Amino acid sequence: MRTRHLTSVLLASLFLVGSIARSAEWGDLKGRFVYDGSPPERKPLTITADLDFCGKKPILDEHLVVHPVNKGVANVIAWLYVGRTDKQPPVHASYEAAEDAAITLDASGCRFEPHACLLRTSQTLMLRNLNPIGDNAKIDTLSNPPINVTLPIGAQVSQKYATEERLPVRVSCGIHPWESGWLLIKSHPYMAVSNEHGEFEIPRLPVGRWTFQFWHEQAGYLSEVTIGRTAVQWGRGRVDLDIRPDGRDLGDILLAPDLFKK
Fold first, then answer.
1. What DSSP designation does 124 have?
2. Which domains are seen in the chain, by residue range?
3. What are the residue ranges of helices labelled H in the chain?
4. 91-146 confidence digits (pLDDT tens)
5. Secondary-structure breakdown of the chain: helix, strand, coil percentages, each rounded to the nearest 5
6. Could you give the CA distance from residue 236 to residue 222 in angstroms, rounded to a whole number?
7. Sign of CA dihedral 226, 228, 232, 238
8. pLDDT for residue 18
9. What pLDDT, on the 0 to 100 scale, is given for residue 16?
10. Sign (positive or negative) of CA dihedral 90, 92, 96, 100
């Protein structure tokens, strides 16, 4: 009887150790979005208000930003997709430090910075006006009450969101109609925005098979891509990927120019 008990304890211990080992396995997801054609030239926006400040230097269109040399596509938004009935993924301990952080979205230089902002529901969005003129921020959320706030010179306005949004939501300004940006709100931290070279990385994902979604403001869902000279269909911008302990590098992900003409 004692031997049977010790065996049960040992098996339970081994199961616990195995579970801890599996939960301690994490891997990164990265890749680079590349415009598969001649990089389009960014055009200056038409400035119609506060010309004394906003008209001092050209403000370029941000709907499609392609690096002129390496063709990287900036501001592609990527996230781990969780369905309405799916459980939230485990979160690596390294994300705890920023769990209740204030994430800034600035009105600066007559534009929003960053152009694409990422926010967790546990965090606080801090809207700041760094311009020497009055500004405004209108955020058209769908799952949360939308806001439309005035931002006087030097203003800082905090905003909390209790519910995640299915897709990025638009940020605009009623005073300066050319100002635009995007805000993605999720319950988990597994999100990324591609940089000026088209590179993105979502670090320390739990090992396993997960669904990821990719979106760009001009193209919408990135549903047709080319990886390693092979055309791939990502329905609604979603793809299932195996995350390994050594990570997953998708390499260059080519985006046809026609994607951005929708």
1. E
2. 25-91+189-262 (2.60.40.10), 100-188 (2.60.40.420)
3. 2-23, 51-54
4. 999 999 999 999 999 999 999 999 999 999 999 999 999 999 999 999 999 999 99
5. 15, 40, 45
6. 7
7. negative
8. 39
9. 36
10. negative
Each residue's pLDDT tens digit, 187-241: 999 999 999 999 999 999 999 999 999 999 999 999 999 999 999 999 999 999 9
**109 Cβ contact partners less than 8 Å away, ≥ 6 residues apart:** 59, 131
Residue type, 167: L
- The sheet that has 124-129: what strands, in order across it? 111-113, 102-108, 124-129, 156-160
Round to whole Å and give the CA distance between 101 and 124.
6
Which residues, including other chains, have CB under 8 Å from residue 56's CB and lie 6 or more apart? Answer: none
Q: Is the pLDDT of residue 23 over 60?
A: no
> How much is the pLDDT for 24?
63
Q: What is the pLDDT of residue 84?
A: 87
Long-range contacts formed by 38-45: CB under 8 A, 24+ apart:
39/66, 39/67, 39/68, 39/71, 40/64, 40/66, 40/257, 45/178
- Cα 193 to Cα 42: distance, rounded to the nearest angstrom: 19
